[in-house]
Specification:
The chain starts with 16 loop residues before the first helix and ends with a helix. The chain contains 16 helices and 16 strands. An 8-stranded mixed beta sheet has the order 1-5-6-11-10-9-7-8. The protein has a 5-stranded mixed beta sheet with strand order 13-12-14-15-16, sandwiched between helices. The protein is α+β, with helices and mostly antiparallel strands. The chain has 2 domains: about 240 residues, BirA Bifunctional Protein, domain 2 (2-Layer Sandwich), CATH 3.30.930; about 90 residues, 3-Layer(aba) Sandwich (Rossmann fold). α1 packs across α12. The chain is elongated and about 90 Å long. β9 and β10 form a beta hairpin. It binds histidyl-adenosine monophosphate. Histidyl-adenosine monophosphate binds next to β6, β10, β11 and α12.
Length: about 425
């Protein structure tokens, strides 16, 4: 019986899956830098009010998914359920000069029912373009997402876009929607019935089939856009077309967080089942002001790391043995030389390892095998006298001798370092 197991909804990333995670993170980092983003790191927990203020009292996150706790000084703290609020708090607190483009890779925590692609701890890869008002920024962020998924060879991706208007036009729309929902209350699922008064817009993207059928007749935000919002949306669409990015307008895409205005978008995969959103984002021109800063336009997105990994074609890890050299010594007399050699290999950028524990050749070869090393370098007494090392290819079993001074230059191309 296992004495300790991981908490429900959490995951271990063990090799080689941890390597695939690294590949996804590195792909994201490289792309973020290419688009002019710089890394920001914020705390794993923040004051609870920050999330209530930003994600919104009507969001599922705040209502039922936050990991909140009191610390020993009775402060209410919350493990971040998403990356955006901490970034904005940090930008304001550190008085960063805007415009600024920031990216992050962070664990997030949401207490939701675990299933494929939905976890209680998961990683978000996010970018935030702060101080950029143009609709073209929104399209550029969408392009960023498409390029990211294409670099990871993810097929079956659809970009969904919508506009949910601004403070002005949304007010008018909200009234129309409320009237419709109140009239049709009985036909909605219990969750939606509750949402009507708290967050009516969220009813639109309920996953329940009955609700969706009924909602086909509901008024949608795009029909009520003011002329500025209409122009903004047209520019987003034109820019997507100019960039030859396929997209679908989804009138019900309102997103689960309260801070969005105008553009909302999501990257949806046909490989994931119910949790099909690989990433999403949109414009949030009011959030910085609501958190105490000056009025500042902003737009951003976050991609789910685990869902990205699930949608990838196969485990993209190098096949065959690891790019690792195992240094083997045959008696205590050679240990010093072996330790120094291992260190020189490492200095030269060659991944190298040795075992201090047993002088037995057979045991050390077994350990090299367990470590999945590509090569073993054998430091033997008799070989040392002749100024050579043994080099064993652990894939083919072939063994040759190499003059000691040539070892590093001969190993480098073999290991592609
Ligand atoms: P979000 O749609 O709530 O947006 O989350 C972004 C992505 O995180 C989702 O598309 C999904 O891939 C992943 N995700 C969310 N919840 C889970 C979960 N329980 N398990 C696994 N993956 C999950 C945001 O959080 C916004 N902050 C995005 C944004 C940035 N908007 C503007 N800037």
């Amino acid at each position: 019986m296992l004495r300790h197991t991981r908490p429900k909804g959490t995951q271990d990333f063990i090799p080689p899956v941890s390597q695939q995670k690294l590949l996804v993170e590195n792909t994201f980092r490289d792309l973020a830098v290419i688009y002019g983003f710089q890394e920001i790191v914020t705390p794993t927990f923040e004051h609870t009010e920050l999330f209530i203020k930003s994600s919104g009292t009507g969001s599922d996150i705040v209502i039922k998914e936050m990991y909140s706790f009191q610390d020993r000084s009775q402060r209410s703290l919350t493990l971040k359920p998403e990356g955006t609020p901490g970034v904005i708090r940090a930008v304001l607190e550190n008085r960063l000069v805007l415009p600024a483009r920031l990216y992050y890779i962070t664990p997030c925590f949401r207490y939701s029912r675990p299933q494929k692609g939905r976890y209680r701890e998961f990683y978000q890869l996010g970018i935030e373009a702060l101080g950029e008002a143009s609709a073209r920024t929104d399209a550029e962020l969408i392009h960023f997402g498409v390029r990211f998924f294409s670099r990871l060879n993810i097929a079956g991706l659809t970009v969904m876009v919508n506009s949910i208007g601004c403070r002005t036009c949304r007010q008018d729309y909200r009234e129309k929607l409320l009237t419709f929902l109140r009239l049709n209350r009985e036909a909605l699922c219990p969750d939606c019935q509750q949402r009507i008064e708290v967050n009516p817009l969220r009813v639109l993207d309920c996953k329940n089939d009955h609700c969706q059928t009924m909602l086909q007749k509901a008024p949608v935000p795009r029909e009520y856009l003011c002329s500025d919002c209409q122009t903004h949306f047209t520019i987003v669409i034109n820019e997507l077309t100019a960039r030859q990015l396929p997209y679908r307008i989804d009138d019900h895409l309102v997103r689960g967080l309260d801070y969005y205005n105008r553009t909302t978008f999501e990257f949806v995969s046909d490989k994931l089942g119910a949790q099909n959103s690989l990433g999403g984002g949109g414009r949030y021109d009011y959030l910085i002001e609501e958190l105490g800063g000056p009025p500042t336009p902003a737009s951003g997105l976050a991609i789910g790391l685990e869902r990205t990994m699930l949608a990838m074609p196969q485990l993209e890890v190098p096949t065959g043995r690891r790019q690792l050299v195992f240094v083997i010594w045959t008696s205590e007399n050679e240990l010093r030389t072996a330790v120094d050699l291992t260190d020189r290999l490492r200095e030269a950028g060659i991944p190298a390892q040795l075992s201090f524990d047993s002088p037995k050749l057979k045991r050390q070869l077994h350990l090299a095998d367990l470590a999945d090393a590509a090569f073993a370098v054998i430091v033997g007494e008799e070989e040392l006298k002749r100024g050579v090392y043994g080099l064993k290819n652990l894939t083919t079993g072939e063994q040759i001798e190499l003059p000691a001074p040539e070892l590093i230059s001969r190993l480098k191309p073999l290991l592609a370092v």
